[in-house]
Structure formats: structure tokens, C-alpha cells
Amino acid sequence: MTSHGQVAISCIGIRKQFIMRHTRSLKEALVWLVKGRKGDLSKKFLALKDVSLEVKQGERVALMGLNGSGKSTLLKLISGVLQPDGGTVRTRGRVAGLIEVGAGFHHDLSGRDNVYLNGAILGMAEKQIDEMFDSIVEFSEIGEFIDTEVKFYSSGMYLRLAFSIAVHTDPEVFLIDEILAVGDEPFQRKCIAKIKELSELGKTLFVVSHDLDLVATVCERGVLLEHGNVVMDGEVHDVVAELRRRSAHAESEGSL
Ligand SMILES: Nc1ncnc2c1ncn2[C@@H]1O[C@H](COP(=O)(O)OP(=O)(O)OP(=O)(O)O)[C@@H](O)[C@H]1O
């Protein structure tokens, strides 16, 4: 049972650092050696600095920000694909991450086998997948291609099957990264309708998308990330307006 008011996602003081190893020039390497190997040839980059965020069950939240602001990194930390270097991330209930769509697919297996494989990875028992199978295939519109190896699928077919499996696993929390912008328009409309239906059932949605008009129709709350910090958290239309203002400013400064 889903009850509103309970916390679905909690991030406290999240910090995530990436280490970027550059190939240095011979001269740089020599200077480094002559100086007694002092300093570090790798460069550290803080993708998320100190992010705290709470999402209640049943909320529909859009995570927004310019390129490189840390959105995908935050989503990967919430889904457990990445671990933070500091802070804590907690989620309540089953989480379905539509992040790297089809990442769990095995290329040499058919769509059918991948439904079973992916369903199992997402925590479904074989019997449950048997019961859901026809409905998964129907929603995905894969049709007879379900017995074709997925390496022959188009990116849209991949997406449709992955989305369909995920919505059939009955998770409490959906993490969605750019998925809404992929696929053709009729399927996009179908996804949005499904997402709205899930939200009416009290599911929690946490969505990353550059399609601001779209997120404004799907979500009611917006969180704006900038250089790895939350700079605004409020009503989605206000946050969209603020992001548009900052984008225009960044463009005029030539810093995009
Ligand atoms: N595995 C990694 N190694 C090194 N740097 C990384 C890695 N993943 C992300 N980054 C860097 O961290 C920063 C944040 O990346 P992230 O993908 O989270 O941003 P984003 O807001 O999702 O961007 P976009 O809107 O372009 O998808 C970027 O500067 C990116 O280059």
C-alpha cells in the first residue's frame, strides 16, 4: 500500500567526486618526475557537492539543470548504480530505474528471453513474469519481433520493451532519465499517459528531462541543480522559468 506523506527518497549531504585521468604530455610528465612526483596527474571533479533532498511518496518531481549540472549522477546514486563519496541516500519501496535504458539487456538473447532476464533482475518471480508476459509485449508494441535477438532492435524498440518491463514490475518509485524524449511521438504519448496513471496510483516519480514543456505537464515539483548544488526547489512552472532565465543568461555569456 502506498501512503502519502511518507518519505520515498531521502538524500542527505550527498557528495560525489569523479577522478579524471588525463593523458599528459611528455613535458608535463618529465616536470612531474623532476619535481619528485609531487602533485597528482589526475584531476578530481566534484559532480555533486552537498545535495540534500526529500521526496514524499506519490510526488512527481522533475530534476532540472544545464548540461553537466549533476542530474544523471544524482539519479544513479538514488538507484544505487553509483555510491556517494559522502552523505546518505535512502529509498523506501521497490525502485525502478529507467536510466540507461536497455542496459540490462543481453544483446544475443531474444526480446522474450530478455523480458525474463530483466524481470528477474527487477525482482519478479518467473510465475509473475509468465502472467505479465502478454501484457508486457502488448504495451511494448514489439509484436512478432519478441523472438528476434535484441541486437537487431532499433533504439525505439529497445526503449519500448525496457519501459514496458519496468512499468509491469509494480515498483513504488520510478526514476526516469530522458526516456520521455526518446521513441516516436505516439509511444511518447502512451508513456506519458502510463506515467500519469502510475502517479494517480500513488507511485513516486523522479524525472530528468531537457524537455521542459513535457516535465511541466508530468510533474508538479521542480528541483534545479547547478554545478552540483540544489539552487531551487519549488513549483515546477517556477523552476522551469528560472532554468530558462539561467539558460538565456549562460548563452549570452557564451558559457554554454
Ligand atoms: N564517470 C564519470 N567520470 C568522470 N566524470 C563524470 C562521470 N560521470 C559524470 N561525470 C561528470 O560529472 C558532471 C555531471 O555529469 P551528469 O551526467 O550527472 O550531468 P547532467 O546534469 O546529467 O548532464 P546532461 O544534462 O548533459 O545529461 C559532468 O561534468 C560530467 O562530465
TrEMBL record:
Keyword ATP-binding recorded: yes
Enumerate the CDD domains for this protein: ABC_KpsT_Wzt
Annotated ABC transporter domain residues:
26-252
Q: Which UniProt keywords apply?
A: ATP-binding, Nucleotide-binding, Transport
Q: Which domain of life is it from?
A: Bacteria
- What one GO molecular function would you report for this record? ABC-type transporter activity
Matching entries from PROSITE patterns are given as: ABC_TRANSPORTER_2
SMART domains associated with the record: AAA
Keyword Iron belongs to the record:
no
Q: Which family is this sequence assigned to?
A: Belongs to the ABC transporter superfamily.
Q: Which GO terms describe its cellular component?
A: membrane
Species, as recorded: Pseudarthrobacter psychrotolerans
Looking up InterPro entries in the UniProt record yields: AAA+_ATPase, ABC_transporter-like_ATP-bd, ABC_transpr_TagH-like, Bact_Polysacc_Export_ATP-bd, P-loop_NTPase
Q: This chain belongs to which protein, by name?
A: ATP-binding cassette domain-containing protein
Please give the PANTHER family that the UniProt record associates with this protein: TEICHOIC ACIDS EXPORT ATP-BINDING PROTEIN TAGH (PTHR46743:SF2)
